[in-house]
Fold:
Amino acid sequence: MKGHLSAARLRRFARQSEGATIIEFALVFPIVLMITFGIMEIGLCMASLVTLEGGLKEASRYGITSQSTAPPNMSLVPTAFKVGNDNRLMTIGYILNVNTLDLIDLNTATINTAVYSSFSAVKDGEPFTDLNGNGVYDGPGSPGVPPAGEPYSDMNCNGTRNGPGASGAGVGAAGNIVVYTVNYNWKILTPIIGQWLGKPDPQNAGRYMIPMGASIVVKNEPQLSGSTFCK
Structure:
C-alpha cells in the first residue's frame, strides 16, 4: 500500500500552476500600490509649488498697484499678513491664500517680504554711507558723535539695516522694490518616496518632508493707493 504522500503525488503537486497567479499578484500589488501613491504625491507636491508661484504673482500684482478692493475675508488671511490692521497687507495675503487652492497651509509656512530702494539694493542690501571707505557696513551711530557709525536707509521700517537677501516686514511704498518669499515643508505620506526624495521631519519621528519655496521680485508703481510706510 502506497503512502498518502507518494513521490508521484508530490511531483504532480509541484507541476500544478493553479493559484500561482493570485499569489504573485498578492506579493507584487502592495509594491505597485505604494509606487502609484508615491507618483501621485509627487504630482501634488509639484502642483503646490506651481500654485504658490501663481499665487505670488497675483498677490504681488495687487501689491504693485494697490487698487482699491473690498475688505478681504479675514478667515482666509494668513497670520503673517495680519499686521497692524493694514488692509493692503491683508489683501495681499488673502489673494495669495486663495490662489494656492488649499494645497499649502500658509499659517505654517515662513513668509517674508523685503523692501529695497532699487534692484541693486536687493543684491547689496539696504544702502548705507561708507564713511571710512572700507566697503563694509560698520554699524549705526550718531553723525558727529565719535564713533559716528555709518548711516543707512531703513527701507522696510524695521529699525535695523538689512544686508543682502535679508527679510523685513512691509510691502513697500511707491517705487520700492519688494521681494516676496514663501518657504514651506511638504509633509510626505508615502514612506518609500520620503526615503528617496525627502529629509527627516524633526517634528515627527519616522516621517519625511520636502522643503519647498518660491519668491518673486517686483517694483511698486510710482503712485499707490492705500499704502502705509514707516508711520
Summary: Residues 123 and 181 are 15 Å apart (CA to CA). The radius of gyration is 29 Å. Residues 142-146, 226-231 have pLDDT under 50 and may be disordered. The beta strands are 110-116, 177-188, 199-200, 208-219.
